[in-house]
Amino acid sequence: MRLATKIEAILYLKGQSLTIAELSESTGCDRAEVEEALIELMEDYAHRDSALEVIESEKGYSLQLRVAFQKLIQDFIPAELGTGSLRTLAAIALKSPILQTDLINLRGSSAYQQVQELVELGFVHKRRQVDGRSSWLEITDKFHQYFEIDKLPPPIA
Question: Does residue 153 lie in a domain region?
Answer without folding.
Answer: no
